[in-house]
Design brief:
By secondary structure, the chain is α+β, with helices and mostly antiparallel strands. The chain has 15 helices and 16 strands. Strands 1, 2, 3, 4, 5, 6, 7, 8, 9, 10, 11 and 12 form a 12-stranded mixed β-sheet that branches.
Length: 465
């Protein structure tokens, strides 16, 4: 069976991190942008007259309401038509139903596959994700539609003149077939975070002066104080106790460590005479940080870490877990010095947002100060410019500042194709291929060679696409 490939130009995977938990199902709608969605494979393929996708979603901690329900519906849109894949439903831990459960405290991973029958008019398409949140009373909350990708055929319909490509039965190719471009990801808001932590001694919650001089904490605090444009959007302090010892003791330790960290923050701002908006501050505590324990243990060089991880997987009761780990006396001594001290901490995470420049600003800066632009901004300038010769110049500028990025050369080749400068197009695509040997570039080289009348060589590239 021959396969038909559909290429996705721009997958959207933007995650914005928040630290407060959902108080209602409506909050899941308000915070929908926290979830990262992806589709695989990046190039959809027809197998046995079917198109299959796998949708994955990363749900952050404290997002999925315990009584919430989320219905995920992928839809392929093509022309004036659309075809829905089978939808999938997920639920919070307090919902009485049989759908996969997403834990409120830890979040989780959504993953499912779906299939639709292929039809010829799906060649140019876009994949949407439509989400509906519901509460346990059946009240529905429509969420923003997410466009996961744009799709076009990457192997053109060039079965003519004996050219063997992998799309059977199509004999109506244009002069050059269909070329594959690469989308530009220019988010409306750029989100960045700074993290720092304060470590505490065993069963202590006082902040040592040496902790306040660490580079990470001073960098974070100074960045917040230096913000005069409103880019600083919030700070969360998460305070923890390591999982050994009495639960009541650890609960008190985590709370008191949170208070101590909060005081350090406010004292620092008071000393600097900088006002800090209390509404931008949030906090959380974890009395026994088993998740952190597993992470630090997995990343450690302890020789018995596999044995300890097995203990964690066998027992869910924290008291039993601690007892069984302590029974591994030699391993426990290593834990006390290498893993547990790292868990006695308060973690500061500051969030900043900056807006993107307008098209006019970006194009102007391409001429006056290109080095101040990002690669995506430069590619965007070329994408929104209408004059083909000006596009070429903008792609050339981009390749000068980002010489190892194949997309500038691929874009340059596409413009040369439109200008009927076939040799220049082929050379640009070959440069792109030398930087990243991917399916789009191989497709475009096939189109260029076919247009130049070199069918054998074109066939080689189409078969690689």
């Amino acid at each position: 069976m021959k396969k038909l490939k559909i290429f996705y130009l721009a997958a959207l995977a933007l995650t914005i991190m928040y630290t407060t938990g959902c108080k209602s199902v409506q909050d899941m709608v308000n915070r929908a942008s926290e979830v990262t969605w992806n589709v695989a494979p990046g190039v959809l393929e027809m197998h046995g007259e079917q198109v299959q996708i796998t949708i994955t979603g990363k749900i952050p901690a404290k997002y999925f309401h315990k009584k919430g329900i989320l219905v995920v519906s992928p839809v392929l849109k093509y022309g004036k038509n659309e075809k829905a894949f089978d939808q999938k439903t997920f639920q919070g831990e307090a919902v009485q139903d049989n759908n996969p459960i997403i834990n409120f405290a830890t979040g989780g991973q959504i993953s499912f596959s779906a299939t639709i029958p292929y039809t010829d008019d799906m060649q140019v398409s876009e994949l949407e994700l439509r989400l509906t949140a519901k509460d346990n009373k059946g009240v529905k909350f429509d969420m923003p539609v997410i466009k996961l990708a744009d799709g076009v055929i990457i192997t053109p319909r060039l079965v003519k003149n004996g050219l063997g490509v992998d799309n059977e039965g199509f004999n109506n190719a244009g002069q050059y077939g269909l070329t594959a471009s690469e989308g530009v990801k220019l988010p409306g808001t750029v989100v960045s975070t700074l993290k720092a932590d304060i470590k505490y001694d065993l069963q202590k919650f006082d902040v040592k002066k040496t902790e306040l001089t660490q580079d990470d904490i001073t960098k974070l605090l100074n960045a917040i104080k230096a913000d005069t444009t409103g880019n600083f959007k919030g700070l969360n302090i998460s305070s923890y106790a390591s999982p050994e010892g009495d639960l009541d003791l650890n609960t008190g330790l985590s709370v008191n460590r949170g208070k101590a960290a909060d005081k350090v923050l406010k004292d620092d701002f008071k000393k600097a005479k900088v006002k800090l908006d209390p509404a931008l501050l949030t906090a959380s505590t974890t009395p026994e940080d088993w998740d952190g324990f597993k992470t630090e243990l997995a990343n450690s060089s302890l020789k018995d870490k596999g044995l300890i991880l097995n203990v964690l997987s066998m027992y869910t009761d924290p008291i039993v877990r601690e007892r069984e780990i302590k029974n591994l006396s030699e391993a426990y001594e290593e834990l006390k010095s290498a893993v547990l001290p790292v868990l006695r901490r308060s973690v500061f995470e500051a969030r900043f947002e900056t807006g993107t420049r307008t098209d006019a600003e970006i194009i102007s800066m391409m001429k006056s100060d290109p080095k101040a632009l990002t690669n995506e901004e430069m590619l965007h300038a070329a994408a929104v410019t209408q004059n083909l010769n000006e596009k070429i110049e903008l792609f050339k500028i981009t390749s000068q500042y980002f010489p190892n990025n194949w997309r500038a050369y691929n874009g340059m080749g596409l413009v040369y194709m439109n200008l009927n400068k076939l040799t220049e197009a082929k050379e640009a695509f070959e440069k792109a291929k030398s930087l990243d040997n991917n399916e789009k570039v191989n497709n475009n080289l096939g189109v260029a060679y076919f247009a130049l009348g070199e069918n054998d060589k074109a066939s080689q590239f189409f078969n690689s696409a």
